[in-house]
Amino acid sequence: MAKKPPPPSEDEIQRALAGEALPGDDQLDRRLRPESFGDFVGQDDLKRNLQLYIQAARARKEPLDHVLLSGPPGLGKTTLAGIIAREMGAGFRSTSGPALERPADLVGLLTGLEPGDVLFIDEIHRIGTVVEEYLYSAMDDFKIDVVIDKGPGARAIKIDLKPFTLVAATTREGLLTGPFRSRFGIPEKLAYYGPEDLVRIVRRSAGILGIEVDDAGAMELARRARGTPRVANRFLKRVRDVAEVRRAGTVTAEIAGEGLAMLGVDERGLDRMDRQILDALRKHGGGPIGLKTIAVTVGEEEDTIEEVYEPFLIQGGYVQKTPKGRRLGPAGYQVLGVKPPKEEPGLF
Ligand SMILES: Nc1ncnc2c1ncn2[C@@H]1O[C@H](COP(=O)(O)OP(=O)(O)O)[C@@H](O)[C@H]1O
Ligand SMILES: [Mg+2]
Questions:
Q1: Domain-embedded: residue 19
Q2: Is 32 in the pocket of ligand 1 (CB under 6 A)?
Q3: Which of 87, 236, 303, 343 makes a 20 to 30 Å CA pair with 1?
Q4: 29 and 149: one domain?
Q5: Pair (38, 88) in one structural domain
Q6: Ligand 1 pocket mutation pick from 44, 47, 79 by most atoms within 8 angstroms of CB
Q7: Domain closes at, from 235, 262, 289
Q8: pLDDT tens-digit readout, 20-62
């Protein structure tokens, strides 16, 4: 029997709420993961594009062009990679940027691919520079140059690979080099989900998990899930516990509200770390201040703030990114109950 994972730490809860997967919790992700485009809610343009490309590739009996999926955590990148492989009728191999440290790690993986396989590399922006260059020729013409031996006896041999499709995911597309990015024939960005799509996702997940949710309860979870399916699913799982303790058979808006309050999630879906970030900006006169200053003030890593928290804060108008640094946006001032400074006419 699998050992029960230890309860998550405060830090892990924060990250999970922002959409990051928790190590012990990815079972939930897997259970709720859509397996076909039909089950994959929303992202209509992206789905239409992918379905068209897949249809065309299948008709030509060729592997699909390489795909780059970018967007904040929890929006469905890993899910889509699996769906692409399934719809192509292809095998699926999966790894991640940090796991590909040395070229040898990559070579072993590439030479093991069957014709048409989908190779999924998560967090592709974390791949080593040398490994990245190996990947270029593999992506361009399904060949890699491998250097055998060291010193005077060293020689390069070319290894032919089976044609394959690289599906890469990243939360930080901006960190990819131009030459790397241009090698993906199908670059797609995932956008935050609207409340209606999230309601559908909550309903779907509730059905799978056998949880009863009424309309207002589903809407409450959807509205506060910061546009992120993974967050909506986590909320659902948590408020089910509240419903059980209250001996309520159904997750209502009231039960949902109580559960979310326990998680430190406010009316707008902001959690403690979000509010700490806004508070850090307020302490510095509303900004602009550098990411580093924010990181030090809230005690979180710069990368995490930039990848996990900021995209939502920026898109909601809570934070603005300017050439001089981050500053509070109109919605940020509203949350803090502080009046924005006067000298910015036209902004508010
Ligand atoms: N479009 C969607 N429809 C339904 N569920 C989704 C959708 N996108 C994501 N999910 C759910 O959210 C979870 C996280 O998705 P995932 O693909 O792991 O995100 P990412 O790889 O972008 O971090 C999945 O387990 C899935 O249950
Ligand atoms: Mg993922």
A1: no
A2: yes
A3: 236
A4: yes
A5: yes
A6: 79
A7: 262
A8: 666 556 788 888 999 999 999 999 999 999 999 999 999 999 9
**How far is the C-alpha of 98 from the C-alpha of 300, rounded, in Å?**
20
Say what the pLDDT of residue 8 is.
Answer: 59
Ligand 1 touching residue 110 (CB < 6 A): no
pLDDT in tens, 110-148: 999 999 999 999 999 999 888 998 899 999 999 998 877
Distance (angstroms) between ligand 1 centre and the Cα of 30 equals 9
C-alpha 30 – ligand 2 centre gap (Å): 11
Q: Token pair 């990368």 is at which residue?
A: 303
Same-domain pairing of 87 and 102: yes
Tokens 């001032």 belong to: 333
Q: Is the dihedral of CA 34, 40, 43, 49 positive or negative?
A: positive
Percent of the chain with pLDDT over 70: 91
Instruction: Decide which of 242, 262, 282 is a domain's last residue.
Output: 262
Q: In the chain, how many domains are there? A: 3
Asked whether the beta carbons of 165 and 64 are under 8 A apart, the reply is yes
Q: Is the Cβ atom of 116 under 6 angstroms away from ligand 1? A: no
pTM over 0.85: yes
Indicate whether residue 79 lines ligand 1 (CB < 6 A).
Answer: yes
pLDDT tens, residue by residue, 189-205: 999 999 999 999 999 99
**Alpha carbon of 205 to ligand 2 centroid (Å):** 18
Residues 64 and 131 in one domain: yes
The length of the chain is: 348
Minimum-distance ligand 1 atom for the alpha carbon of 80: 17
Element (H, E) at 121: strand 118-122
Please report whether residue 38 resides in a domain: yes
Give the Cα separation of 246 and 320 in Å (integer).
Answer: 41
